[in-house]
Write a structure and sequence with these properties.
16% strand; 44% helix; 3-stranded mixed β-sheet; binds 2'deoxy-thymidine-5'-diphospho-alpha-D-glucose
């Protein structure tokens, strides 16, 4: 039985992780620590809050005293560290929060974990750090995918802050013997993803009849993985991963952005032609008037320092831990679209005035 502290559990991947874990390991206890930034949503966890083995704590990973007291009070033996500023465009407009949360915040957690788990009363423990493939930089069209030994070459302030946090986690293992693991995952998609990220932004904009902003030529490539296949990888690492090791997680699923946008347009067009209720609910969607949403595609100014291609080689986690994604892209994207269609209250609340102001200023 484990007692987990899940940081950032009210965000996209953290929320999915909490439900994944409570469902698979009902005997475990979970405490979520989340600062509820613009990306955090306590209501995501309303079902989890009915479970007596779950607790939500509104607080910041930068608060060392709070983290120490949670580790002691809840007898935490496992930290799964998701909390971060996660959006590349925001890091370009304002990097400071990325340095604070992603670097200083991770270091605060490491210090607290070392004090409670190693210095005060040594005990078996695990610190799992959630990281990203963006730390490896950008690939050329024919380069082999990133492996765990690809040199770090982060290009955005977000990627640089995640790279720094990975190095700190590794250093706490090498220097102090903290029992750490790290995972570097490719682009996730699925339920609860904040609609500033490509896939939920495109789906919700199609439904609202708004332009679909494609940065530059749209030929940049990302390697997409359904969120619970990321959580499956983290699960295997927590259960069977080797202390001090890094594991890449990915789905061998490279797509250009423009093809993703066109796929979302096709899926929605086909769904609306078969379901008249959708026409009533989303009257601003072009498909409600029988039109194909591709007319909404708008090429906008490119992202500064935009990485051209990411691709993950997941051979290590596959061969060492038996990892294999469960969801195909076809099934995962349909599940995601259905979730967005069924949860319009969730995203309409988020796409408020301040969010839309931010999105619009991103294209200036
Ligand atoms: P998200 O932005 O949706 O959620 C981040 C969560 O962290 C939010 O709930 C937010 O309130 C919380 N948070 C932020 N600052 C905090 C602080 N100082 N103290 C406590 N909580 C704080 O992010 P996500 O997409 O779910 O990403 C989660 C993790 O996975 C991040 O570490 C990210 O780098 C990594 N990752 C994301 C992807 C992806 O495609 N989304 C892929 C690979 C890795
Ligand atoms: O690779 C893993 C990373 O994936 C995570 O570490 C990050 O937290 C996560 O945000 C994501 O980063 P990306 O920058 O790849 O994701 P995003 O959804 O912002 O953009 C995906 C691609 O789509 C990217 O090439 C930029 C492009 N894009 C994005 C938006 C929001 C557009 O063309 N138009 C848009 O409006």
């Amino acid at each position: 039985m484990k007692n987990l502290l899940v940081t950032g559990g009210a965000g996209f991947i953290g929320t999915n992780f909490v439900y994944y874990w409570l469902n698979k390991y009902p005997e475990d206890h979970i405490v979520v620590l989340d600062a509820l930034t613009y990306a955090g949503n306590k209501a995501n966890l309303s079902e989890a809050q009915k479970n007596p083995k779950f607790e939500f704590v509104h607080g910041n990973i930068l608060d060392e005293t709070l983290v120490e007291s949670l580790l002691i009070h809840h007898k935490i033996d496992t930290i799964v560290h998701f909390a971060a500023e996660s959006h590349v465009d925001r890091s370009i407009h304002g990097p400071d929060e990325f340095i604070n949360t992603n670097i200083v915040g991770t270091h605060t957690l490491l210090k607290a974990a070392k004090k409670i788990w190693l210095d005060d009363k040594p005990q078996n423990h695990r610190f799992h750090h959630i990281s990203t493939d963006e730390v490896y930089g950008s690939l050329k069209p024919n380069d082999p995918p990133f492996t765990e030994t690809t040199p770090y070459a982060p290009n955005s302030p977000y990627a640089a802050s995640k790279a720094a946090s990975d190095h700190l986690v590794r250093a706490y293992h090498k220097t102090y013997g903290l029992q750490v693991t790290i995972s570097n995952c490719s682009n996730n998609y699925g339920p609860y993803q904040f609609p500033e990220k490509l896939i939920p932004l495109i789906i919700t904009n199609i439904l609202n009849g708004k332009p679909l902003p494609v940065y530059g030529d749209g030929k940049q490539i990302r390697d997409w993985l359904y969120v619970d296949d990321h959580n499956l990888g983290v699960d295997l690492i927590l259960e069977k991963g080797k202390i001090g090791e890094t594991y890449n997680i990915g789905g061998n699923n490279e797509w250009t952005n423009i093809d993703i946008v066109k796929l979302a347009c096709d899926l929605i067009y086909n769904k609306f032609s078969k379901n008249k209720d959708l026409v009533k609910t989303f009257s601003n969607c072009p498909s409600s008037q029988g039109k194909h949403p591709e007319t909404l595609i708008t090429h906008v100014k490119d992202r500064l320092g935009h990485d051209r291609r990411y691709a993950i080689n997941a051979e290590k986690i596959t061969s060492d831990l038996g990892y294999s994604p469960r969801e195909s892209f076809e099934t995962g994207i349909k599940k995601t679209l259905d979730w967005v269609l069924e949860n319009k209250k969730w995203w309409r609340k988020i796409m408020d005035k301040s969010f839309m102001e931010w999105v619009n200023c991103n294209y200036d």
